[in-house]
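User: I'm putting together a teaching handout on how multi-component assemblies are represented. Below are the sequence lines for each component of a complex, exactly as they appear in our records. Could you produce the 3D structure of the whole assembly as structure tokens, so the students can see both representations side by side? Please keep the chain order the same as the input.
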Amino acid sequence: MRLSVRYFASLRDAAGCDHESIVHQGDAISLYQRLAQQHRFTMPQSRIRLAVNGALVPWVQALGEGDEVVFLPPVSGG
Amino acid sequence: MDVRAHFRLNDHGIDAAALRRELEDAHCGAVIAFDGVVRDHHDGRRVSELRYEAFAELAVSEGRAVVDEAAIKFAVRRIVCEHRIGLLGIGEIAVYVGVAAAHREAAFAACRYVIDEIKSRLPIWKHDHYADGAAEWIHPD
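Assistant: Of course. Below is the structure of the complete assembly, with chains in the same order as your input.
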């Protein structure tokens, strides 16, 4: 399936782009592990929250064709 | 009952005096505001300026959820919260939380709830720029 992945903060710096289109079969955990290896993300998946199509979702949620996936590193607003 | 709760991202500068006028309500005897302000140090290093980046769609929906929750949990009439994004200098307001209620207990409690939840939940990230020229993303443990 084709997915749109968006990056923010340190993940965007590491990826060198703020979004990319990825063809991936599997769940969000395997997608993160694959992209972490590709872009040398040092943040473990256990510290990341997942958003799909603009909403926070659990990591076990299945991904679907055309989904927008965002990996959220720990936040520091306020 | 007339209860209003608003959350906005702000990319140009928070006008605390203007936001305070949004809190005016003849029913309310307690009006309080919290300003989160950019400070000049982090972990012992001199900060010269910082930049906030947001996943805007989710930050707005989550921010609205936070102020709506506070409006339900506490006996308040007005909640206004704005969070800055973009480049900020020392002393600028990073986040504003204003609450108006009939009585002070609810106003303080709601204000505390909103700022704590905003800090822990909203997808907003701080990029500190240090006086020595270095910069880093802040990702708390």
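A couple of points students might notice: Residues 28-39 of chain A form the longest helix (12 residues). The interface with chain B takes residues 6, 8-10, 13, 43, 47, 51, 54-56, 70, 72-78 of chain A (CB under 8 Å).
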